[in-house]
Amino acid sequence: MSTKFTKDHSIAIVALIGAIMGFVGSIGQVYFDYQKNQNALTYEQQIESLNDVVKSIDTLKEFVVEQKENLKESQKSLSELQAKQDQLKPVIEADQKAIDAIFALQAEQNKKNIWWERAIGFFLGVAGSLVASLIWSYMRRNA
Hints:
The structure is a single chain. The chain has one helix spanning 2-142. By secondary structure, the chain is mostly helical.
């Protein structure tokens, strides 16, 4: 009996070990398939993410190129304005000197004219007073 039990027991143990190995193998296969799918999905996601990064870089590159062009246009406009300022500066300075000379001449003429204006005002005041006195005397006599 002991040999039969040992043979049966050995067969059962071998069958059990085979079943455990089959079960472990199946779980391992499922696990490795899952990991493979996860890695493939991760790689696909990484590739998609890298494609998005490339698109973003291209968009950024276009923006930088556009900003460079805008900066060049602004620099060109600034250079043109500075050139115009350099051209107009002597004219403005000459005009300022002419304006200052005109104001100085006008101030000098105002000093001369002020005495004439005062004299004319004084004589017109005296003449107005005489006319008023004559009118007053005429009205007193006829009244």
